[in-house]
Structure formats: C-alpha cells, structure tokens
TrEMBL record:
Belongs to the protein prenyltransferase subunit alpha family. Residues 68-89 are annotated as: Disordered. Residues 78-89 have a biased composition (Basic and acidic residues). It comes from Aspergillus leporis. Residues 68-77 have a biased composition (Polar residues). One of its GO terms (molecular function) is protein prenyltransferase activity. Keywords: Prenyltransferase, Repeat, Transferase. This is Uncharacterized protein.
Length: 396
C-alpha cells in the first residue's frame, strides 16, 4: 500500500469512527510526524493531508462520474434525482468519507459540499417526517452539523472563514428546524383536544427556551470561529442569518425576537471586550442592541465599553467606532459625556482637531469616533496630572 493510500485509510478510519464527536484538527509541522490523534484532537502534516486528498478525490469522482462505470449519485440532472439508498453501503460510506477528507483539504470544494447536500435532500424525500421515519434524517442532520462544527472550530487556515461551510451549515440548520417544526405540529394535533390551559402555558414557555438554547449553541460556534480568525465577517454574517431565522420561529411571542437578542448581549459584550480590535464583533454587538427595545440595556452596555476603554487606555478605532455609532443610534451623547467628565475640563469646549492617516487635519464632524477618542485622551491626561501631583502615588 502506498503512502497516499495509508494517509487516506488513516483519515478515513478517524472520520468513520467520529460518532458525532466534534474534532479539533490542526496542521502539524513535519517534524512531529504525519498524523497524531489524542481522543478528539487530531494533528496532520500538510503533506500527509495532500496525499489523503489525492486518493479521496480519485474515489469521489470515480463514483460520481457517470463514465466511470461504477454508478453516479450526482453527475447529471437525472442522477441527482436518484436516491443515495440505491447504492451499496460500501459505496455510500466511501463517498461520505472521501467528501469529508476533500472538504478538510479544500473547504470551498463545491462539488463535494453539494453532493452531501443532495444526499440529505434524498433522505428528506424518502421520509415523510413521521415519528418512526424521520429518525435517520435527524441523525444525518445532526452528524452534518457536528462535522461543520469540526471544520469551523478547528485552527485551520481557511475553514473558520469559509462562506461555503457557513452557508452549508445554515442550510442544514434550516432542515433541522423544519423537522422539529413538523414534529411539533404533529404533537400538538395529537394532544389538542385534551390540552388544558396550563399545558398550553407550559408549551409556550418551553418553545422559547429551546430556541434560545439553539441560538446560543450556534453563537458558541461563531465566537470560536471569530477567535481563530479575527474580523470574521462570514461568521458574524452567518449569526445574523441564524438570528433572523429563529426570530421568525418565535414570532408567536410578542417579545420573542428581542428576548433572543437579549440572551446574547452579555456574552457578546464580554467577547468584544476580550477582542477590542475586532470590528466584526463590535458591529454584531451593535446589531444585537438595535434588536432590543430602548431601555437601560443600551446606556448600560455603552457605559461599560467606555469605562473599559478609559481604564485600559484603549485607542483602537474599532471600539471607538462602536461607541460613536451607539451614541448616534440610541441618543447616548449625554451618557458618554457624563462618563468622560470625571475631571474638570475633560470635555473640550474648543473644536477638536483630528488627523487622518497622512497627518492632515480633519474636521471633527467628519471623524466622530476621533472626537470621542480626543475626549478620552483629555481624561487620561487629567489622570496623569493627578497622579503626578499625588504624593502617595509618587511614593513620597
């Protein structure tokens, strides 16, 4: 057996025994060996992965190419309509494993990703979503979600920001919600005549809870992807789409969408303060605040961000841009000025002069975030002056 065959067989064994576990896969330097596994932690060298990919690609196209003589699952329009169940278990297993290895090497491989999607569509057509018939579909969807989590949450160069993987995950999540919705409707129809008002109240209270849990589960994946790839536009765009979909699910409850947003705000704010230079995170934080009705939540969140910036001396554009946009969106100018006015003169009365990247003067009206940063610098200067005049702080 060649080295490439060995590489494929070892990776195939790992993926075939995953059993819905979430792996963390990373690329190893050559000196550490071709492949290492410690429970759910997988390390593989780039060369070994390339060798496995070559074999996986050959197997995948051998089965899906109609001219190969081995049958096809998806090569032509007619073949796309055929069910994956018409093929042997060995063929299906080889295709599943080879497509997983292909996506591990190339996360933008649309052919492999689309084949996996068509297989799930085949399962959906074959099952009528009855309590007995839907189980294989649910298992397949859960397996696909955990596979996407493995890709998106592993320290791989491209996977954490892959639009193909995020869109595929969104499609799978939509199918899962459809299955759950069909099951809920069937359950309600069976119990409608005997349900009391108390039972109805319990049902309403359970539905938002499960939706919030699902939202937070997806949010955890997005935050991990955001940590691995800073300023991850694709991850937070995906989260906006998930929030929009789940808000539609909770439309029966008057405050459903705002409750979903509130459930994420504290987590998102803490994440942003831990990654203050991440503009994608700050913009999603602003998106969540805009989804919540006006109240104490807006000024409290912005006040916390301003206090953080003042305490650590943060001058980064992303954080101050968030502060500026929040002030304009929620009319919080007095709140922020009150926070900055700790020392006399911390709010400039003269026009604030700002500078662009070339050093040229820019009117403050064209650089709102720089205006607030200039006020913060005045605050820091006041602190420094007080510290220099305080004998105790100087050790005298």
């Amino acid at each position: 057996m060649s080295t490439s065959d060995n590489a494929f067989q070892e990776l195939a064994r790992i993926f075939s025994t995953r059993n819905n576990r979430i792996f963390e896969i990373e690329i190893l330097p050559p000196a550490l060996g071709p492949l290492l596994q410690d429970e759910c932690s997988i390390g593989i060298t780039k060369k070994y992965l390339v060798q496995a990919f070559v074999v996986a690609r050959h197997i995948f196209y051998e089965y899906t190419n109609p001219t190969s003589g081995r049958g096809s699952l998806s090569a032509t329009a007619q073949d796309e309509k055929e069910s994956a169940a018409q093929h042997s278990d060995k063929t299906l297993s080889d295709l599943l494993t080879s497509s997983e290895i292909i996506l591990l090497f190339d996360c933008e491989h649309l052919t492999a990703c689309n084949w996996r999607r068509r297989r799930l569509e085949d399962l959906k057509r074959r099952h009528d979503l009855s309590p007995d018939g839907r189980e294989p579909l649910v298992q397949a969807l859960e397996t696909e979600l955990t596979l996407m989590t493995t890709y998106l949450c592993s320290p791989l160069h491209r996977h954490t920001k892959s639009p193909t993987l995020f869109q595929h995950r969104l499609w799978v999540l939509n199918q899962m919600l459809h299955v759950r919705s069909a099951e809920a409707i069937a359950t309600r129809s069976l119990t409608a005549q005997s349900a009391s008002r108390g039972t109805q109240s319990e049902r309403i209270s359970r539905e938002p809870e499960s939706t919030v849990d699902l939202l937070r589960s997806e949010f955890t994946v997005v935050l991990r992807a955001g940590e691995l790839h800073p300023r991850n536009y694709y991850a937070f765009s995906y989260m906006r789409q998930v929030y929009s979909i789940l808000s539609g699910v909770m439309n029966e409850a008057r405050e459903g969408p705002s409750l979903l947003a509130e459930s994420l705000i504290d987590l998102m704010l803490n994440w942003c303060l831990a990654h203050p230079s991440d503009i994608s995170g700050w913009m999603f934080m602003l998106y969540l605040l805009e989804a919540v009705p006006k109240g104490d939540l807006h000024p409290n969140a912005v006040h916390k961000v301003v206090r953080y910036a003042l305490d650590v001396g943060w001058e980064g554009e992303s954080l101050w841009t968030f502060i500026d946009l929040s002030i304009r969106a929620f009319d919080l100018e007095r709140t922020v000025e009150g926070t900055l006015r700790t020392f006399s003169g911390s709010i400039p009365t003269a026009p604030v002069v700002c500078y662009d990247v070339t050093g040229k003067e820019t009117p403050a009206s064209q650089s709102h975030w720089k205006t607030w940063l200039a006020m913060a610098r005045t605050y820091w200067a006041g602190h420094a002056k007080v510290a220099s005049n305080d004998p105790q702080m100087n050790g005298n």
